[in-house]
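Section 5: illustrative case.
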């Protein structure tokens, strides 16, 4: 399987406030990305899947990565 890089944009509800997010991850498909977002936000912020709204998942080129940790891995 070929690993691709995706940029994910969306919002999540924590308390009474909505917060925007942009994350970049390596994965084999978009379904894996969705699962990673739900897992990481759930464990880090203690929120449920219904509090996370993924608005956009875009495949990006390695040279377009801005996340410093992901850049180092590549």
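Designed sequence:
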């Amino acid at each position: 399987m070929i690993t691709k890089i995706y940029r994910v944009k969306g919002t999540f509800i924590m308390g009474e406030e909505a917060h925007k997010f942009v994350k970049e991850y390596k994965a084999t498909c978009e379904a894996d990305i969705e699962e990673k977002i739900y897992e990481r936000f759930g464990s880090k912020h203690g929120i449920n899947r219904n509090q996370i709204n993924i608005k956009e998942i875009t495949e990006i080129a390695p040279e377009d990565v801005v996340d410093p940790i992901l850049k180092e891995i590549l």
